[in-house]
Amino acid sequence: QSQRPRSPQHQSPTLISSCHSPRGDSEEYCTVRHFSISGRKVVNRGDSFKVKKSTSGHSVASIGSTGNDTESPRLSPAPPAPYCVAVLGAPSVGKSSLVSQFMTSDFLHAFETFTGDRNDKTVTVLLDGEESELTFTDVPYAILKRRDQLPAIHGFCVVYSVTDRTSFHQAELTLQQLSADGSIDRRAVILVANKVDLARGRTVSEQEGRILATACNCKFIECSVVICHHVDELLVGLVAQMRLKAGVAVAGPTKAKRGRKYRGAKTSSSFRGILSKLRITKSNSCHKLHVL
Question: Looking at the record, which segments are called Disordered (predicted)?
């Protein structure tokens, strides 16, 4: 098994919000995670740090470079595209751990607690030469809607645990809310099945997750934060989906692709009805995070 790439600047898995620059002054740095897509595979190119802003307000080149100190810092041609992602789900499904692992390529050991401030839940992703800045929030959907903050959200991660069927039903209700207000048509929405490493305790099958995602016309992925399984793929998929949705919005309104109405999997009859009607080809496409 190949090891995950590690940045030489990472001395600990916790997110560093500030440190001293080589010139001795105090600067605020942010993590930049580098990825590329080769075929269907996500390639992790490692992490670096860069100064968030210079005195002129522009972002500065990575501090990991080994150029001449007398040379002026290279200014990036444009700031990274900002995106806000809401991470929704029942308690204890792994939302905080998932966001913590998004922040670094370093392996965060099982059950490690995220020690950063709420404002530290921001990471820059360099994917195929283009930077995007992702800020994560775990504010519940009802509060976002009540505060009229939904327009500021670009993507949703709806998380459940494969060992907790109640959390799956809550994810189902959340997707119904997102579908009702039009968020699934306009924004990136990914249904995330966490804790797949706990195979013996699984109560929600992968097929059930695919059926729900297909019925609600959103994307789907299974992962395990504890063993870092498919975490990078989810992060890159989020970036790809938000870029694609933004491109559709710029191109103008089109006829929305509606998913099948999903009435829930709590009763065996409704579940069997959906299972018999959904086509396998459509169900298989929900895991392709790099296409609409």
Answer: 1-26, 52-76
